[in-house]
UniProtKB/TrEMBL annotation:
SMART domains, sorted: Flavin_Reduct
InterPro entries found in the cross-reference section: Flavin_Rdtase-like_dom, NADH-dep_flavin_reductase, Split_barrel_FMN-bd
Keyword Oxidoreductase set for record: yes
Region (Disordered): 1-21
GO terms for biological process, alphabetical: pyrimidine nucleobase catabolic process
Residue stretches making up the Flavin reductase like domain: 34-179
Name the UniProt record assigns to this protein: Flavin reductase (DIM6/NTAB) family NADH-FMN oxidoreductase RutF
MF terms (GO), sorted A to Z: FMN binding; riboflavin reductase (NADPH) activity
Length: 188
């Protein structure tokens, strides 16, 4: 018998219970399932005219190269959600391993993430951004979709700063920051 725990689920096609499974996942079960799914770390900034906001996200991913589209999700519990959902443009910062301080800054609740004016500025188009981020993508919000207690935001990439060469990404896994490097590479 495996040490793995069975997590309940509902079969949407059958609408009935299957052996060993109960109907629906609890929030704790769902979080536990994703706890071991590593994700890259990004910071998303915006300003809808009422001041800059920023949040740290692990839900950013590319959708299409042509046209260049990405998506991310915003929890309704985030203090940045109202501004992000009203903004026409956002800046998505893709963080490298040495940028945990920026990730922690935008993940910390109840603080002014833009108090230190030496670490952020505005693009010529007006969006707030962190120049020290490894790379960033400025985009136009093209669609949103309500999804439970979150909103999925689709963004068309308009401009980017991507340095030459590679950098080890900042990764979040099991409630801890990590870096990927040569030691983590699996050769085939």
């Amino acid at each position: 018998m495996s040490d793995a725990q069975t997590i309940s689920t509902e079969d949407p096609d059958q609408g009935s219970r299957r052996a060993g499974f109960s109907v629906g996942l609890s929030p704790d079960e769902f979080k536990r399932a994703f706890r071991n799914h590593a994700a890259g770390v990004a910071v998303i900034t915006a300003d809808d005219g009422n001041g800059p906001v920023g949040l740290t996200a692990t839900s950013v991913f590319s959708v299409s190269a042509e046209p260049a589209l990405l998506v991310f999700s915003v929890s309704a519990q985030s203090s940045s959600a109202p501004t992000l959902l009203r903004a026409e443009h956002v800046v998505v910062h893709l963080l490298a391993e040495g940028q945990r301080d920026l990730a922690q800054l935008c993940a910390t609740s109840g603080i002014d993430r833009f108090a230190d004016t030496s670490i952020w500025t505005r693009l010529i188009t007006g969006e707030p951004y962190f120049p020290a981020a490894h790379s960033w993508i400025r985009g136009r919000v093209v669609d949103t979709m309500s999804a439970g207690t979150s909103t999925i935001v689709a963004v068309q990439a308009l401009q980017a700063q991507v340095p030459e060469g590679e950098a080890a990404p900042l990764v979040y896994h099991n409630r801890t920051w990590h870096s990927l490097g040569d030691a983590s590479r699996i050769e085939l």
